[in-house]
Amino acid sequence: MFERIWLKFKIFVGGPQARRMQRGQAVSEYWPVIGGATGLLFAALGVMLSPWLGETYQTIVDAVFGAQTPEAAMVCVPEEEATYPVTATSDIHRFELMTWVYNESSDTTTVGYSVTSQATGPGPAISHWVLELPGCLTASSVVSASEAYEFVDPDPKTGARGVKFDRGYSDYETRLVFVTLKGNLEKVAGSVVTKAAKRVNSGTIQTPGCENPDECEE
């Protein structure tokens, strides 16, 4: 009986049915490997074809809806503090910016200059000088000053436009002069213009400009 069972088992193992089962088992064992290799193949094809597919898609969209041009975005950026000369020489006379204060409660800007006559050598003393101002600032922009002044547009002797201080200087005299103007004013490179006897000269120094704007750029 056992011999008959063993013979049937050997016939089955060597038969076509057993071979079909073995092939099926082999396929099932290697199926994950086959699946992984197939996935890698499609991934590689996707990487190679993605630029072409993307361009083709965009071409179709542009043809249907029209090419779209992105609008330039406005970006507000903080204003950078500009640096301008804080000392100037007009002929032989020296100017130095001593103070620049914006008072938020009164919305005014006060600037102060140290003015020295004949600072760099002998010559005639200052008879008067003008703090030049841009066209956006007028006589009504000047709130006060530390000494007598006049708004000139222009000064007939120097041709300068701005705040004129007509109190003459003694030889080698130094005075502090303050001017208060309306608004939170920009710092710009402006001029101070001196007249001493017949000599008219100017120097470049930090002076008040127009009202501080909000700065936006594309």
**Name of the CATH first level of the largest domain:** Mainly Beta
Widest β-sheet, arrangement of strands: 2-3-4-9-6
Portion of residues in helices? 25-40%
Give the rounded overall mean pLDDT.
77
- Give me the number of helical elements: 2
Largest sheet properties: 5 strands, antiparallel
The helix-and-strand class reads: alpha+beta
CATH architecture of the largest domain: Sandwich
What is the CATH fold-level name of the largest domain? Immunoglobulin-like
Report Rg: 44 Å
What are the segments in which pLDDT stays under 50 over at least 5 consecutive residues? Answer: 5-13, 18-53, 64-78
Counting structural domains, the number is 2
Distance between the termini: 98 Å
DSSP E strands, number: 12
Say what oligomer this is.
single chain
**How does the overall form come out from the CA principal axes?**
globular
Strand content: 35-45%
Secondary-structure element order, N to C? HHEEEEEEEEEEEE
A few lines on this structure:
The protein has 218 residues and is α+β, with helices and mostly antiparallel strands. 29% of the residues lie in helices and 36% in strands. The strands form three sheets. It has a five-stranded antiparallel beta sheet with strand order 2-3-4-9-6, with no helix packed on it. Strands 7-8-5-10-11 form a five-stranded antiparallel beta sheet, with no helix packed on it. It has a two-stranded antiparallel sheet with strand order 1-12.
